[in-house]
Amino acid sequence: MFGIAYNDDVPGTHVNGDRGHSKGVALFDESVGFWMLHSVPNYPPLERYDYPETGSKFAQSFLCLTLDAHFLQDIGEYLRFAQVTPFITNLPEFHRLLAPVLEDVVSKKSLKRSDTVYTTIRGIETLGGKKVKGFSKHKKFQSDLWHDFIALNLHTDMAVETWRNGAAKDVGSQCGGGANVYDVNNIALLGKSFSSTKDHSKWGVSMSEKVPAVCIGDVNRQESQFKRGGGAVCIEDRTLWKTFKESVTNFDGCDVSIKTDDKKTPTANKDDKRPTKSNKV
Fold first, then answer.
1. Residue 281 has pLDDT above 70, yes or no
2. What pTM did the predictor assign?
3. Does the keyword Metal-binding feature in the UniProt annotation (predicted)?
4. What whole-number distance in Å separates Cα of residue 137 and Cα of residue 119?
5. pLDDT (tens digit, 9 = 90+) per residue, 50-59?
């Protein structure tokens, strides 16, 4: 059985700020398995199952995919570019031959110094037939995951919810350069409303139903994250898209804060030559 748990904030240790800002678990037999991406520090613990108190204080995000084992090479490449920090690993000979890149992942080897491509997009299909895309960046990419990589490749504007607390400088909403990415301020789900300051999750949703994409990831929109690896997995599904899109009740335009029932339009920067989009959901 192949198994890996990775977390930049390993239970019982200090944060590894040099490697990827990535968290997840994968477990596969010789035919099928699952890959779960999440945002919870210090999880899962080594000795027994538990859920950290810090993970309960703030909202978190999880995405679990059930996959055929032949996608392990794609998962491994995603993890290699992201420079994940494994703390639980088991790599049998069968899986090492099936997906040779996993040997680099478990031994914390990433790109070569001579490599000049710092991102990868991996196409994956779940056992249920849902096609997803994994977007992963190496720290040498030196740019924002959401605006400079995901939104540009999906060809859509996005509202993005990530951790923006602390001393690190926020990127802020960005208009221009081929896509607009807006920072989410408030979320409402199942009759409960909360601000982004109470949310440690990392996700983005497209602004247009023409590209009904939801992306679950692990990188914050803060400048310090330019120097960290990480990524997100994106799914195009109208039902899921509608749930996430309607949960956004307030976001920052490029110059103003916007409620989703307002009639104002996000103001674009001067270098954005495209028409601005209506903020109505």
1. no
2. 0.88
3. no
4. 4
5. 888 878 888 8
